[in-house]
Amino acid sequence: IKAPKKKKSSASTKPTFVTTDGTYYRLIDMVTSSEYRPFFIATLTPFDRTNLEDLKKHRVHWGSLHGGYIDIELFTELANYDALIPHAIDIDICADFDDLN
């Protein structure tokens, strides 16, 4: 018996855990900010099974990114709002975001 094939989703399909658009804008503002960009870039470096120290570093960086993401005081307004005015996006869209635990 074959398992049913998983329906292929479009690259533009929202993941099920993202329910508000503020989540996307909050993540974008965070990974492009001067404070959190170095953490994000550090997570892009590959690691292999022979060097588990890099895995520990990745966990620390992801922890820092998650801490910044859930901090209510940070990223409450869009950083590049002027560029988004023609698209009718509220400046405070980042205030309503999903808890990505």
Question: Can you describe what's shown?
Answer:
It is a single chain. The protein is flat, with a radius of gyration of 17 Å. Helix 2 (37-43) runs antiparallel to helix 3 (52-70). With 101 residues, it is mainly α. The N and C termini lie far apart (36 Å). The chain has 4 helices and no strands. The model has no long low-confidence stretch (mean pLDDT 78). The longest helix is centred in the middle third of the chain and has 19 residues, at 52-70.
Quick overview:
The chain has 101 residues and is mostly helical.
Shape: flat
Helical coverage, percent range: 40-55%
Low-confidence stretches: none
Number of strands: 0
* Beta-strand residue percentage: under 5%
Total helix count? 4
Specify the structural class: mainly alpha
How far is it from the N-terminal to the C-terminal residue, by CA? 36 Å
Tell me about the biggest sheet?
none
Order of helices and strands: HHHH
Q: What Rg do the Cα atoms give?
A: 17 Å
Nearest-integer average pLDDT: 78
Descriptors for this entry?
101 residues, mainly alpha, 4 helices
Topology overview:
Layout: H1 21-32, H2 37-43, H3 52-70, H4 81-84
